[in-house]
Prior knowledge:
By secondary structure, the protein is α+β, with helices and mostly antiparallel strands. 23% of the residues lie in helices and 36% in strands. A six-stranded mixed β-sheet has the order 6-7-8-3-9-10, sandwiched between helices. It is globular and about 75 Å long.
Amino acid sequence: MNSGFVRFENIQKSYDGKTLVIKSLDLSIARGEFLTLLGPSGSGKTTILMLLAGFQRPTAGDIYLDDVKINTLPLHKRGLGMVFQNYALFPHMSVAENVAYPLKVRHCGRAEIETRVRKALDLVQMAGQETRKPSQLSGGQQQRVALARAIVFEPKLLLMDEPLGALDKQLREDLQYEIKHLHERLGITVVYVTHDQSEALALSNRIAVLNDGYIQQIASPSVLYEQPENSYVAKFIGENNQFHGIVKEITNGRALVEIGTFGLIQALPVDVDSGKSTWVTVRPERVEIEPESSDHSVMGRVEEVIYLGDQIRIRMTVLGNDRFIVKIHNRAGQRLYFPGEEIRIGWSLQDCRALNT
């Protein structure tokens, strides 16, 4: 038997009886893991969360939580904590009353409720705010209260659906770190939904990249970023320069790819065959300008230089791609580049991958 704490086996989901939103899902989540479901709108990530929560039932297949099949088990019997983007706090209740609510419906004693509420609010840095109402709190504070309410009864599993989507950038980043540290302290299993790549990379033990009802790749953040298995993942995770080409041959672990009429380049082959089309990818930060030595170098023309403070982005035309990006750190004495300038760039073979289309 699969030993995953959470298991989806042969799951399909259709809302209208015709179109499958989830086409084929086999997924195992370890106890204590922080797994993020990442994908664009319509990819199926929220549907997976709703199936796990019990708001939806699968059209086919089985879902297990701690070796118990929960397909038809109602939400309140699954022992799950949930945090939503819109906070979902009771406006007429105080902070303490909101956090205490899951304990009251479980008929916990008054002393236990007070102890657990105090501990949960302390964990989310909201101690001292017990008597305030949600309308008196900022968005970030409301989300902290929602998080405290979700963990106060020590759930088996914590589900989070775009919980930081309504917050501004700085506050979102601050809460990302707090959620990460909270997970590390509690050791709770978390399934998190977002469309924000940087958020997924910052928080997760593993990320499942979804598109069109399928998991395209599931791996640790570093493996997803460094070793995408197809062009969709390469484009979706971080920023990637891409060239479309034809694989001419594969020898000694290297693919020789013809990029239109612009010539041949070498790349690491990933699930591609000779004679087939491919996307060749290289990350902007892995490109060197005027390299002393590199596995591959080409000439490019500077089209635009964008100053971003800690880094400088240079948009170039390279091998016919006029949206080729190079990122360089803004160091003291950094040489300036200007539109129209022709410069040589290069990259190592290990940073250049030929992926299936």
